[in-house]
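ok here's the first one, seq then struct tokens
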Amino acid sequence: MLTLDVERGYNSMPSPSTYHSDFYAWTKEQTEILRNQQWHKLDLENLIEEIESLGRQQRQELRNRLAILLGHLLKWQHQSEQRRRSWLATIRVQRRDILKLIKENPSLKTYLSEAISDGYDNGRDLAMGETNLPEETFLQQYSYIPDQILSLDFYPDN
């Protein structure tokens, strides 16, 4: 556990068990160990796992945002008579957030095609569920090109 040293702030001792019992305390411990460059005290196994997890979270965020965007693009395309301003807002917000995510994490560009493919499957399911249109209405594979999907000016059949 952390102990408070009035002169130096927090002292940390490696306590891998804290990782499982109090994650927040564990992060504070590891942060202090890093700040003090006490490399031998690091909980390397769990630290590596958490850093890997952060990368996976960025990929997951990209897939989730693409699923929402693609689902709304499909609704926009296949239910033009029921278009809503909220759909337009969702499309715009998701595009801006995706572009920002890629700008902040440029290496995600190499993952974009796979993320679009994975996101399309979920977006297609969302569109089917929200429109009650038959499954065959929506193609098995996306027909938009990545530049269209991310373009602030592209709207299918518009």
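and now the second one, same deal
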Amino acid sequence: MADSDTPHRPPRLLPDAIHQETVGPGTALLRLETTRSREGRLDGAWWPRTRDIETELPTLISVLTRHLGPITRVGVDASAWNGLPTRLVVDGRVVHLDSDPVGDDTVLVTRGDNDHFALLVVPPDTTEDAARQAMARAVSADNITEAAQILVATTPEPEADRDG
């Protein structure tokens, strides 16, 4: 087969058909496109397996470091995690953790002094279908919806009590 016969596709960080892909706990999806303004936009989504940040965050930071360069700080919602240290050592580098009880369903990752990336955090107990929908919406280039609203919109309604 000649080179001209081989379909050439540029490398992508996101699968073409995220709605058909299997997404499981521990998955992170990133858009990370260069923009002049990040207002109202999420740069990705993360579905941790547990609420133990010392177990979950190092893997995320390692992956992000490969794409973004060294991560210096991570801002987290204190109410979403069990036990928050003020720093973690990941791949031999100190990463400072800033906690705030804001309940905004995001993680704010800082590269360098002031380059920030906002990731939707899908709660660990979310169903696979709801997580896939939330993550796909978060990484959509035209998304302007806040993280909490995405999670509400993609969480199935509980079945009504039919006995009474």
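notes on #2: The beta strands are 27-30, 44-47, 71-77, 87-90, 93-100, 106-111, 115-121. The two ends are 68 Å apart (CA to CA).
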